Structures are given as structure tokens and as C-alpha cells.
Amino acid sequence: MTAPACGDGRDLIGHGAVPPEVVWPGGAALALNIALNYEEGSERTMPGDGVNESLGEIGRPVAAPARDLATESVYEYGSRAGVFRILRMMDEYAMPLTLFAAAVALERNPEVCAWIRRAGHDVCGHGHRWSEDWTVDREEEAARITAAVDSITRTCGRRPAGWYNRWMPSEHTRELLVAEGGFAYDSNAYNDDLPYWTRVAGRSHLVVPYTLTYNDSRYAAHGLTPAGFVDTCVRGIDELAREAGHRPKMMTIGLHARFTGQAARASALREILDHVAARGDVWVARREDIAATWKAQHPPPS
Fold this sequence. Notes:
globular; 8 strands; two-stranded antiparallel sheet; TIM Barrel
């Protein structure tokens, strides 16, 4: 009996039962990337977009033509206060960040760009705006990628090393990223605990998977508490580090300026960073450094 089709081109095996071994710097048991999604000021608003943004503190979208001033204000908190609380905390712990940044959000807050330059954080392109690019045609998506690269290069002093769409890519995204030629990786997948190579238009392309599990969007989407976020992330760190005796892994913690930037939730991030620092065997790394380490030890297949 023929099994039913479940999508075209999917890889349900990946690294398999015995994943490849990687030696993280310092012999770390785990590579941890902290990814700060910075989208504030680039989200959808009325009247220009014809729709209001929906992912705020309360899942109650305001229908057009009314303008959702409440949700806009939630996003403003992220850019006015939240992002700087997180950046100061990372400085305090001398730990690097990767900013999943929408280009227009950076354009609208030069002080964030200056902080990125000064602290040496890396940027993963998160769209020209925080838009649903799977809804547009290939040419428009390509134009948006180019616009984002040009903008981020200008505001942050260097181009984005990687790319992560809002929520999901289109069927064309990965081909467009490879054709653009300047991306070391993309993070448009949630399917592994390690980077992996894939083939795109006859070329090898690196994927550094992201996560929706260790992600503070659950504060709004699922009613997660700060204590629950700490528990989830600490459990993930400890269990993955325990697996280092088998093969070391990587993990991402996904943050948003408007969510974790709130003081009570920032205290949860502080507890997580304290736990990481106390362990002493976790490599907190920029995403581009994880990609480079993987590529050096596991170069693309010929």
C-alpha cells in the first residue's frame, strides 16, 4: 500500500539516529543563541496596510477601518523601553545577542543601531518590514530582501549574516536567499537541534534552525508566566547539556522587545542568564558564530 503524500521535498530523517559531532569553543556542552526579535515600528497598522497588527498583549484584533491605538502602544513600549532593558542586561552579563531585526524597525530607532555596533551583536534579517512575505509574488519578495539588506547594512554598518521571515517563508524564499549570495545561513525552520546543510538550486545552503518552544511569544499566545518561561528554558538547557555526552547540541531562546522587555519578564531572562553563567559549560554565541563553527567542522558536502 502506498503511503499518502505529506508535502513535497520534506526531509523527515535529518541527521538520523546518530547526529554529527561538533566541538563547540571551550569544549562547551551546549551552544546557546539568544535571539531578540526587533520588529517594533515595522508592524502592520491602519490605515496604510489596510489591517491592524494582531500579535500584541491581548489576542483581540481590531477590525478595519478603526485604528488599533492600544496594540500600537504595546509595540511602542518595545522600542521605547523594552529593547534597552534587554540590551543593558546583555551588556551586564557580557553575553552576545543576535537581533532578528526588521529593517524599518532599525531605521526608526538609530540608538538601537548604535548599540548593536558598539556591543558587536549580529543581525539576522527579519524582513524589510515585519510582513507576511508568503502572500506576495516572487519578484516582490526578492525586492523586499534586497531592500532589507541595503537598509541594515546602512544602519548597522554591516549586512545581515542570516535571514528569518515572519513566522514562515514562502516556497521561493530559500532560492531567493541563495541567489542573493550574501547569506551564511537562514533560520526558516524549527526542525532540529543542530544546523544542517540543504541543497538549493544545485548549491549547498546552511540552515540554523529556530524555535517556537523556548520563545517568549508564549506570554501572549499561551498565557505563559515568567516562572513558566524560566522553567521551560532551564529545563531545555540542562537536558540538552546532559546530552553532550552523546553529541553536543545547540539551543535558541527567542525574545521580543515588547514582551521580555517588560520588567517582570526581564527578571525571568535574568534568572536564565544566572543559570547559564553558573553552569559554566554553555557557549553563549551569536548566530553567525554558530554557523561559522558548524561550517568549519562540517563543510558543505561536495
